[in-house]
Design brief:
The complex is a heterodimer of chains A (about 160) and B (about 425).
Chain A: E1 2-9, H1 16-19, H2 30-34, H3 45-48, E2 54-57, H4 69-76, E3 81-84, H5 89-97, E4 102-104, H6 106-111, E5 117-121, E6 126-129, E7 134-137, H7 143-150, H8 154-161
Parallel strand pairs in A: 1-2, 2-3, 3-4
Antiparallel strand pairs in A: 1-5, 5-6, 6-7
Chain B: H1 13-22, E1 32-36, E2 39-43, H2 46-57, E3 68-71, H3 81-97, E4 101-102, H4 111-117, E5 126-129, E6 143-146, H5 149-158, E7 160-164, E8 168-174, H6 183-194, E9 203-207, H7 216-224, E10 233-236, H8 240-249, E11 265-272, E12 279-281, E13 289-291, E14 302-305, H9 307-310, H10 313-323, E15 333-336, H11 341-349, H12 352-359, E16 362-363, E17 384-387, E18 403-406, H13 409-418
Parallel strand pairs in B: 2-3, 2-5, 3-4, 5-6, 8-9, 8-11, 9-10, 14-15, 14-17, 15-16, 17-18
Antiparallel strand pairs in B: 1-7, 12-13
Classes of the chains: A alpha/beta (about 160), B alpha/beta (about 425).
Bound molecules: iron/sulfur cluster.
Iron/sulfur cluster binds near residues 111, 389 and 390 of chain B.
């Protein structure tokens, strides 16, 4: 699987309260959540995000609450992948579980800049920065996570085992 | 630094609980395991998504009706029609599946205060909850950690979950805390020291002679905030105080795990409780810690005393001690929220409400309410609150340009009186 898109970049410690504020959590409808994604950090995000865009960030992305509404909102807004230096562990788990590709790669996350065009090949683990003409190599997912991703998320994986 | 326990080395407390629940003799940091669950938790925000996912699996029963807890506490008593619909959806699911531990308004409390009080978690348990502060039960010597809704759905279906075995950091507590210093100050001090990702993916294990000086309510408040350092879990040694708590609240069988003497820790810190000062976390992150003497003049508009961090009976008592015979500053709204029905009733019977009301504070029924900017005390643009809660992120309690300062109940109550961040000593 390959994705290609432009980068929208944020800093360290992007928490789930700014990804989707609690005042919108009285629904779990992905399109409603997407309409408020990143609102408290970057009100322009919703207007400028395009389908396939890639989010990049610094350390500890997705810290805070366990709300799965956060990766759901990001996925529904059209983001095809998130690259960060590190992720908070619950966010990481949730993203894999709902089938939102997510890459922990400090080198890439530090080097990538807002507006860069990237092409990510999940099979080879190569991120190509088309703007800067550089590339980054990513570690493969552990086998069991690959199985979850191949089954389109944890629920699909469990259904296979029943 | 190293990456965990080499072969032949001992296991941490967390590793032992995980090994037992995975049916293995030993596990090592980094290992992926499948473990059996003793309790699966969800609330009115996360459970609706979990139920939707559970339905996709196509099962007509959950793995164990007695091992699931659903607690509508965030937007309850329902604040609007959408919240009411969400709770209705999970209530119907709980009835259909025969889930024993569904807690309706009138019985409920903030989930992480409620579950230990109801005796649903005991030492040695392995608990997952679709709420990040599920790590609170580590105070009881259980392994408990937050997960998302899909993991909750999978847990309800199979009674199992996947884990990567964490390495651990060890915090040795010594000495005796000074007056007005609580577990909250200790954990804010620790988070200030190691940072909001200082324990990312790791366990925080708390041990040492100083533990004897920490009440169970102190420990719950500390374990609760392990997630604020990015930890997978926080866990306390089990001692006489733990066992007394368990005997009082539960009839469930329990198991006491101890870390091996040769267990490997990635870092060890010794904290002399006697040197910890009342500590406040400045916005917008819990690691922006400052001791009370370094706070300066911070005027405030609201005080919230409650939440899964500090809404327990001792917190209510401390607040009452400070507020007794005093008045809330005319520019401050002081909102006090006992975390559960039981704590509410106890506070009433002990006469604490009389003190709160006399001081000019408002007392609410149990709810998460303002803690997450849900309802019952939202901040306007530019307003500042001192809260005994656990997060001070941008917009956490309302407008993105409002601010939350995290503190202990003693500091919060004193600040309510002073109209600025203050210690009880200054009143
Ligand atoms: S009191 Fe606050 S932190 Fe605790 S469960 Fe409720 S919303 Fe979460």
């Amino acid at each position: 699987m390959k994705v290609k898109g432009n980068v929208i970049k944020y800093g360290d410690n992007v928490d789930t309260d700014v990804i989707i504020p609690a005042r919108y959590l009285n629904t779990s409808e992905p399109s409603e959540l997407a309409a408020h994604c990143m609102e408290d950090l970057d009100a322009s995000f919703v207007k400028r995000v395009k389908k396939g865009d890639i989010m990049a960030a610094g350390r500890n992305f997705g810290c805070g609450s366990s709300r799965e509404h956060a990766p759901i909102a990001i996925k529904a807004s059209g983001i095809s992948c998130i690259i960060a230096e590190t992720f908070a562990r619950i966010f990481y788990r949730n993203a894999i579980n709902i089938g939102l590709p997510i890459i922990e790669c400090p080198d890439a996350a530090k080097d990538i800049q807002e507006g860069n065009e990237l092409e990510i090949d999940f099979d080879t683990g190569i991120i190509r920065n088309l703007t800067k003409n550089t590339s980054y190599k990513v570690e493969a997912f552990p086998e069991f996570m690959q199985k979850i991703i191949a089954a389109d998320g944890l629920i699909g994986y469990i259904r296979q085992g029943l | 630094m190293n990456n965990g326990n080499a072969a032949g080395k001992g296991m941490t407390m967390t590793q032992k609980i995980l090994a037992d629940h995975a049916g293995l003799d030993r596990v090592e940091a980094g290992q992926l395991i499948k473990a059996k669950l003793d309790m699966v938790l969800g609330n009115d925000i996360t459970a609706p998504v979990a139920v939707k996912e559970f339905r996709k699996i196509g099962l007509d029963r959950v793995f164990d009706k007695g091992k699931i807890a659903i607690v509508p506490d965030h937007f309850t008593p329902n604040k609007d029609i959408k919240s009411a619909e969400q709770v209705k959806y999970i209530r119907e699911f709980a009835r259909e599946m025969g889930i024993v531990n569904f807690f309706e308004v009138g019985q409920m409390g903030v989930e992480h205060a409620l579950l230990p009080e109801k005796g649903l978690v005991v030492p040695g348990d392995l608990v997952i909850g679709a709420d990040s502060h599920t790590c609170t039960y580590g105070a009881l010597g259980a392994f408990s950690t937050g997960i998302g809704s899909t993991d909750m759905a999978a847990g309800m279906a199979t009674g199992e979950a996947w884990f990567k075995v964490p390495e651990a950091m060890r915090f040795v507590l010594t000495g005796k805390p000074g007056k007005w210093v609580s577990g909250k100050d200790v954990i804010l001090h620790i988070i200030g020291m190691i940072g909001v990702d200082g324990a990312l993916y790791k366990s925080m294990e708390f041990t040492g002679d100083g533990l004897a000086e920490m009440s169970m309510d102190d420990r719950f408040s500390m374990a609760n905030m392990a997630i604020e350092a990015g930890a997978k879990n926080g866990i306390f040694d089990v001692d006489e105080k733990t066992l007394a708590y368990v005997r009082e609240h539960s009839t469930k069988p329990y198991k006491v795990y101890k870390a091996d003497p040769d267990a490997v820790y990635s870092r060890e810190y010794t904290i002399d409780l006697g040197t910890v000062k009342p500590t406040i976390a400045f916005p917008p992150l819990p690691d922006r810690a400052r001791t009370i003497d370094k706070v300066g003049e911070v005027k405030i508009d609201q005080v919230v005393i409650g939440s899964c961090t500090n809404g327990r009976i001792e917190d209510m008592r401390v607040a009452a001690t400070v507020l007794k015979g005093r008045k809330v500053h005319p520019d401050v709204r002081c909102i006090i929220i006992p975390a559960t029905q039981k704590i509410w009733r106890q506070s009433m019977n002990e006469g604490l409400f009389e003190i709160f009301i006399e001081a000019g504070a408002a007392v609410s029924t149990p709810t998460c309410g303002p803690c997450l900017g849900g309802h019952m005390g939202i901040l306007a643009k530019g307003e500042r609150a001192v809260a005994t809660t656990n997060r001070n992120f941008v917009g956490r309690m309302g407008h993105p340009e409002s601010e939350v300062y995290l503190a202990s109940p003693a500091i919060a109550a004193a600040s309510a009186v002073a109209g600025r961040i203050a210690s009880p000593e200054e009143l």
